[in-house]
């Protein structure tokens, strides 16, 4: 498996230093960031580094959908603390990863919030060039990953072109992993699941 255009971004919530006991939360996030930066599994390709963070090619017109897609962009309170991107050779296919550190127990609520946002965004009308652009949501079945997972598929048109997005949110301990896999052609759900599984395993290993 080769993942094209992978983005690695780490975000710390506003006020998390106080809520998480400060140093503990920062150290947990730092270990997770280092683990992901050193991913060398041959099943995913993190070698084609572009140096800029992933940015969505659209803006949802609905506020609830906007909050959901913010997870993929790294807007967790204070925003992105560090970002990098990686490219490959498949047209328009990208993957983005965001890590957020939470106080003990708060990550569970954050995952439930992500699930609520997915349910509240059945169709995302897109603010982009092209008339009638929108992304229609549908279930994205994935196996159990980490300490809990929520997933959703969005498919339609953006800027007049076919577009598909897989959004997977995984909790491992106090870290929430938000993975977005997008492309202009049909995406492989299994590849999305494999990447989410690998990322969760790396974050858990770093915490042990």
Please give a structural write-up.
By secondary structure, the protein is α+β, with helices and mostly antiparallel strands. A 9-stranded mixed sheet has the order 2-5-6-7-8-9-4-1-3, sandwiched between helices. Helix 2 packs across helix 5. The chain has helices spanning 16-19, 23-37, 63-73, 106-119, 189-207; strands spanning 6-12, 59-60, 80-85, 94-101, 123-127, 134-139, 149-158, 161-172, 175-183. Helix content is 30%, strand content 31%. The protein contains 5 helices and 9 strands; from the N terminus they run βααβαββαβββββα. The relative contact order is 0.21.
Please name the defining characteristics of this protein.
9 strands; 208 residues; single chain; disordered N terminus; 31% strand
List the helices and strands and how they pair.
Elements: E1 6-12, H1 16-19, H2 23-37, E2 59-60, H3 63-73, E3 80-85, E4 94-101, H4 106-119, E5 123-127, E6 134-139, E7 149-158, E8 161-172, E9 175-183, H5 189-207
Parallel strand pairs: 1-4
Antiparallel strand pairs: 1-3, 2-5, 4-9, 5-6, 6-7, 7-8, 8-9
Helix pairs in contact: 2-5
The shape, in one word, is globular
Major sheet: order of its strands? Answer: 2-5-6-7-8-9-4-1-3
Number of strands: 9
Poorly predicted spans? 1-21, 78-82
Largest sheet: 9 strands, mixed
CA-atom Rg in angstroms: 16 Å
* pLDDT averaged residue by residue: 75
Tally of helical segments: 5
Helix content: 25-40%
Q: How much β-strand is present in the residues?
A: 25-35%
Q: What is the string of SSEs from the N terminus onward?
A: EHHEHEEHEEEEEH
Sheet/helix structural class: alpha+beta
Give the end-to-end Cα distance, rounded to a whole number of Å: 27 Å
């Amino acid at each position: 498996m080769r993942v094209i255009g992978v983005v690695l971004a780490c975000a710390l919530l506003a006020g998390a230093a106080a809520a998480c006991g400060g140093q503990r939360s920062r150290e947990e996030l730092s270990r997770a960031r280092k683990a992901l930066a050193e991913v060398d599994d041959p099943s995913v390709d993190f070698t084609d580094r572009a140096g800029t963070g992933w940015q969505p090619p659209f803006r949802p017109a609905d506020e609830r959908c906007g909050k959901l897609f913010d997870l993929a962009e790294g807007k967790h309170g204070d925003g992105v603390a560090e970002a990098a991107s990686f490219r490959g050779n498949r047209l328009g296919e990208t993957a983005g990863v965001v890590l957020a550190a939470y106080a003990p127990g708060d990550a569970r609520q954050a995952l439930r919030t992500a699930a609520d946002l997915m349910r509240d965004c059945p169709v995302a009308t897109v603010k982009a060039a092209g008339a009638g652009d929108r992304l229609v949501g549908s279930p994205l079945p994935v196996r159990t990953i980490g300490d809990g997972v929520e997933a959703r598929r969005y498919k339609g048109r953006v800027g007049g072109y076919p577009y598909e997005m897989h959004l997977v949110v995984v909790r491992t301990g106090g870290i929430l992993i938000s993975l977005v896999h997008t492309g202009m052609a049909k995406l492989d759900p299994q590849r999305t699941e494999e990447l989410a599984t690998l990322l969760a395993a790396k974050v858990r290993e770093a915490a042990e």
